[in-house]
Design goal:
The chain is 32% helix and 19% strand. It contains 16 helices and 26 strands. Strands 3, 4, 5, 6, 7, 10, 11 and 12 form an 8-stranded mixed sheet that branches. It has a 5-stranded mixed sheet with strand order 17-16-15-18-23. Strands 1-2-8-9 form a 4-stranded mixed sheet. Helix 14 runs parallel beside helix 15.
Length: 585
């Protein structure tokens, strides 16, 4: 009830420890109120260790308590596919005419059209279904969800021609809740002059003849799921099956570079190479060029892969580029993931072994069977919420890049430069040499949208700089950041890239505010991507590792199929229909 400005003035006058104490007290009171509400709804806050799959529990989303189906392995894409599948199955069983729609305002929410004359039948059908399997209805725009089993909910929405139907899903930890945002839209098309007319615009057609023929298409056409999965078929119109100009028809792969710094063989090779370089040129390495924090692995790769499985179902293949290492937990038998050794991609084997990410990045376009369009990620970069291919690529194939507010320092490169600044200056020099413009901005630590053909062209155009970078065993003042900067500016100047926009956050783990920022990120989950990184060795590495591990497990509690569990290999082609417990609903 206190205005925002007044609250801020009050907070500034209250000591930090007291604020923390007050927050904890309020949280405890809120937890008590939540527990009372949960019990009143007949649910439990947490299920037992051996609770059966598909059990109902009460969860909280946007400050409201909802009944949800607890599903091991729940993902954002599967929650949407589940809702579409249930709606289609119910309509098929009841014999109510329908067709799936593409091209509506939201490119990710599935949509089903029902003739308005069958609305009463549809409402009766859904009310019965909601009694057996509790779910919710609302409007397509953000609005409170209403219990779908209550007749009053339908009466309140009788004037709406587009509804959102949702069966809420959560994972066993209760940290992931997929509610209204992951539902299925229902459009009621009206009859007029022998035509069915849509209640809202779409990009394909808003009028079809009453007797328009139906066809069948895979449900994944209307609700994206990863390639190895299947969700069955649904009725639609031929117009909604055809490819659209804003469809991403080309495959998109992901490439990671990864190293296991705890491997004694790798460490001995790195130390030997570092010693040889220092012996040749005293003080040749900047302190941040090869310090331990640059190679530290806290199992981030496992969670970055989980983020892809959770939020980017459109990725085709994942390539993990390593120095002959394979994570012990990686399920290499699952389709769509492959480990690539440095020796497979380096054009000049004499450059190996290398401990320089710039050198490795310079060779990514040599990966066999890599798609023309791909995303390059470090293992400390994560998808934070569902993302669409359009965030990184235009439908016509142009890439997008994301400029940082941080600037490349002016002046010439020197041995005293931070490695990132030296690389930026070198990139600036090459762009000025070829295009006559002076770049000034660094790039954000996000997934980098790249094209093989552009990288191959850069290798030819800047042959000498490219070769020097490939042969730098550690980061050096002569490096060029080919994948993370030069590609973007080169493609932009040659009309193959544009400046993009992304909601992103970078968290410096060495910062004293890191824990608070991680807590905020976990609570809000409101960024497309985020990066956790440190360039200096932490005072207490163990404390930092525990902080990171706790955060990642809380943010990404659902294992991906790229992991093995106790030595058991995940099935090759699990079907979300069975996995999410709606087969036969």
């Amino acid at each position: 009830m206190v205005p925002v400005g007044a609250r801020r003035r009050i907070v500034r006058r209250i000591p930090g420890p007291l604020r923390t104490s007050v927050k904890r007290s309020l949280a405890s009171a809120d937890a008590v109120r939540s527990a009372v509400t949960v019990r009143a709804m007949g649910g439990q806050v947490r299920g037992g260790k051996h609770a059966p799959e598909g059990r109902l529990r009460v969860v909280r989303e946007a400050g409201k308590h909802l009944r949800a189906v607890e599903v091991p392995g729940a993902t954002a894409w599967a929650a949407r596919a589940r809702n579409l599948h249930i709606v289609v199955s119910l309509l098929e069983e009841a014999g109510i005419d329908y067709f799936c729609v593409r091209g509506a305002k939201s490119p990710v929410v599935p949509c089903v059209a029902v003739p308005a004359r069958r609305r009463a039948d549809f409402e009766e059908l859904l009310q019965l279904a909601f009694v057996e399997h509790p779910g919710y209805i609302g409007t397509a725009s953000p609005a409170p969800l209403r219990p779908g089993s209550a007749p009053g909910s339908w009466r309140a929405l009788r004037g709406q021609n587009v509804l959102r139907v949702t069966w809420v899903v959560c994972d066993p930890t209760g940290r992931l809740v997929f509610g209204g945002e992951y539902g299925c839209d229902i459009e009621f098309w009206t009859e007029r002059d022998g035509l069915l007319t849509a209640p809202r615009p779409n990009k394909v057609t808003t009028e079809v003849p009453l007797d328009a023929g139906r066809c069948w298409a895979e449900q994944k056409r209307f609700s994206t799921v990863p390639g190895p999965y299947t969700t069955g078929q649904a009725r639609t119109l031929p117009e909604f099956v055809a490819a659209l100009p804003d469809d991403h028809l080309f495959p998109i792969d992901v490439v990671y570079t990864w190293v296991d710094d705890s491997d004694p063989v790798w460490r001995s090779r790195r130390d030997a190479a570092r010693g040889q370089l220092t012996a040749v040129r005293e003080g040749a390495l900047h302190e941040q060029a090869a310090n331990d924090s640059r190679y530290t692995s806290r199992d981030e790769l496992r969670y970055s892969l989980r983020s892809i499985h959770q939020y980017a179902p459109w990725v085709r293949n994942i390539f993990l580029v390593t120095a002959g290492q394979v994570p012990s937990w990686l399920n290499t038998d699952f389709p769509g993931i492959r480990v690539v050794d440095h020796r497979e991609i380096f054009s000049e084997p004499s450059a190996l072994p290398t401990f320089n990410s710039h050198a490795i990045e310079s060779q990514l376009h040599h990966i066999p069977e890599l798609s023309e369009h791909f995303l390059y990620l470090n293992d400390d970069v994560f998808f934070g919420r569902p993302v669409h291919p359009g965030r990184f690529f235009h439908p016509n194939g142009l890439t997008k890049f994301f400029q940082s507010k941080a600037l490349i320092p002016s002046g010439r490169t020197s041995s005293q430069d931070l490695p990132v600044n030296a690389a930026g200056r070198n990139s600036r020099g090459l762009i000025a040499q070829y295009f006559g413009t002076v770049i000034s901005q660094k790039m954000k630590h996000t997934p980098h949208a790249l094209r093989r053909s552009v990288l191959a062209e850069i290798e030819q155009v800047y042959n000498q700089a490219h070769r020097v970078t490939q042969h730098s065993r550690f980061r050096s003042p002569n490096d060029v950041p080919i994948a993370s900067s030069l590609h973007h500016y080169y493609a932009y100047h040659s009309a193959r890239a544009t400046v993009g926009d992304i909601r992103y956050v970078y968290i410096d783990l060495a910062d004293g505010m890191a824990q608070r920022r991680l807590d905020t990120l976990l609570a809000r989950r409101n960024f497309d991507t985020f990066c956790m990184n440190d360039t200096v060795t932490a005072p207490d590495p163990e404390v930092q590792s525990r902080m990171v591990s706790a955060f990642l497990e809380a943010y990404f509690p659902v294992a991906s199929p790229f992991e093995t569990a106790s030595g058991v290999v995940a099935p090759r082609r699990p079907a979300p229909a069975a996995e999410l417990g709606y087969a036969g609903s």
